[in-house]
Amino acid sequence: MHRLVASWFGTGLILGRLRGSDIGSGTLGALVALPLAVLIGRRWGWQAQLLAALIVVGLSLWAARPFSTDRGDPGWICVDEAAGAFICVIGLPVWPEAILAWVVFRAADIFKDFAPGVAQAERRLPGAIGVTADDVVAALYGLAVGHIVFRVL
User: Fold this and answer.
1) Strand residue runs (E) in 44-128
2) In a 3-state reduction of DSSP, which class is residue 115?
3) Sorting pLDDT into bands at 50, 70 and 90, what band is 141?
4) CB atoms closer than 10 angstroms to residue 64
5) Residue range of the domain that includes 14
6) pLDDT of 30-46, one tens digit each?
């Protein structure tokens, strides 16, 4: 069950099976989570998005624990990126801003050494907490940018 949830219900295993490399699995997992996260907000509001994000963060902490090491997590684990996708769109029920928030989140996660706090969260916190924390911090970058643009435009 841990492996199923950690791979965001198999999404994280797709690229490894197709091309023999897990590179990009986090982005794919986050991309699969994005429509669900936005639709929850459109249907039930930001409170439901917040609740869903907290649930997915909890799932990430639980599911990544058996697979995380001091050197991070295997590339096929993407529940942490799914959690980030849920966080970065809280309160953004419109697609342009949600997509922008998601892109900023993924950029902050991918280029974590250039986004203050992202790499530190991963490196300083142990196990599954570090695996999840860097995506939470990166998602907050996306959330901030998405809301700034949403409020200005």
Assistant:
1) none
2) coil
3) very high
4) 26
5) 2-152
6) 999 999 999 999 999 99
